[in-house]
Amino acid sequence: MRIVVFGAAGRTGRLIVERALGHGHEVTAVIHATMPDTPDPRLITVFGDVREFGAVEAAVTGQHAVAFALSHGADRGSDILEAGIANVVHAMAAQDVRRLAAVSAGGAFARTDKRLSLAFRALIATAMRPVYDDLEAMERRIMASALDWTIVRPAALSDEPASG
Question: Where are the beta strands (DSSP E) in the chain?
Fold first, then answer.
């Protein structure tokens, strides 16, 4: 299977690339920054900006599936996720690629859920509000598409070894 990974240079994106290669897939890693070299002939690294439709469509062309693992990084006030996924969804439709998996975050669409700690609810209502606004806009675009999609909302991610 050929998989394109957007956000492949990030911590989660690098793990997706590593796991996909480990399962024998061919991977195109779309990055906006540098990424450690992986001496694997099944890995193609391309530089691109998800806000540029032409770059997104070129990366999606010929793929079987898309993994979207973009993050805000230090740019917490932007709409990078919504803008990026809009281009990805459009490119996938244009190239007849059906399968999309996207990483969101725990707490999306549940900002007032009493099962979340008071501290976490306060954080996503204040300092993280622009990020959660963008995450939810991204998810709405995905859910409105005709794609075969999966959205993952991890509660917490770490760099520790896999635990199950």
Answer: 2-6, 26-31, 43-47, 65-68, 99-103, 148-152
Tokens of 55: 């770059």
SS3 63: coil
User: CA angle, 93 as apex, 89 and 95 as ends, to 5°?
Assistant: 115
- Cα gap 45→43, rounded to integer Å: 6
Mean pLDDT of 75-97: 91
C-alpha distance from residue 71 to each of 1, 20, 25, 68, 81 (Å): 25, 19, 23, 9, 7
pLDDT digits (tens, 9 = 90+) for 19-53: 999 999 999 999 987 666 667 889 999 999 999 99
DSSP 8-state symbol, 138: H
Tell me the pTM: 0.91
Distance CA 116, CA 29 (A): 34
**68-80 pLDDT, tens digit each:** 999 877 665 688 9
Q: Say how far apart CA 10 and CA 6 lie, in whole Å.
A: 9
Tell me how far apart the alpha carbons of residues 92 and 9 are, in angstroms, rounded to a whole number: 21
